[in-house]
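Long-time lurker, first post. I've been practising inverse folding by hand and with some scripts of my own, and I keep getting stuck on stretches where the structure tokens seem ambiguous. Below is the full token string for one chain I'm working on. Before anyone asks, I'm not after the true native sequence, just a reasonable design that respects the backbone. If someone could post their per-position residues I'd love to compare against what I wrote down in my notebook.
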């Protein structure tokens, strides 16, 4: 019984989200026609990405998108954007605790070791 109530409530939420979205699209269209707004949503999308999903993945993504009152495409791109930023930052940024940072700064202040100076003085050999 509880599952039926959940499904019914879910579809009511989806219906409400679609109505809100439809109204927002109509308002946005009128404002664009007047030249009052230009949003990323109105920019032409030149690339397409197709994904292979299981049915349960698709259902889960659709449910999450509906809860955010977004299309599946909007929800997917916003989450992919966030994940891409996180992964790029994770790969490019090194975080040090206070002790490790102090040790790093001390190493930078020390003179360059003789072996490193010898390597730097070698000619370039690109073969």
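-- Answer (accepted) --
I ran through it position by position. Result:
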């Amino acid at each position: 019984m509880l599952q039926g109530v959940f499904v019914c409530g879910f579809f009511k939420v989806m219906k409400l989200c679609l109505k809100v979205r439809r109204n927002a699209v109509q308002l946005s269209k009128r404002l664009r026609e007047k030249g009052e707004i230009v949003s990323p949503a109105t920019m032409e999308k030149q690339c397409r990405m197709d994904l292979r999903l299981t049915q349960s993945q698709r259902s889960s993504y659709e449910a999450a998108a509906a809860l955010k009152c977004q299309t599946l495409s909007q929800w997917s791109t916003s989450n992919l954007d966030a994940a891409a930023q996180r992964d790029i930052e994770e790969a490019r940024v090194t975080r040090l605790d206070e002790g490790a940072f102090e040790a790093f700064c001390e190493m930078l202040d020390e003179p360059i070791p003789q072996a490193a100076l010898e390597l730097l003085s070698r000619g370039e050999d690109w073969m």
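A couple of notes from the structure itself: The first helix runs from residue 2 to 33. Helices lie at 2-33, 55-67, 72-92, 98-109, 114-121. Happy to go over any region you disagree with.
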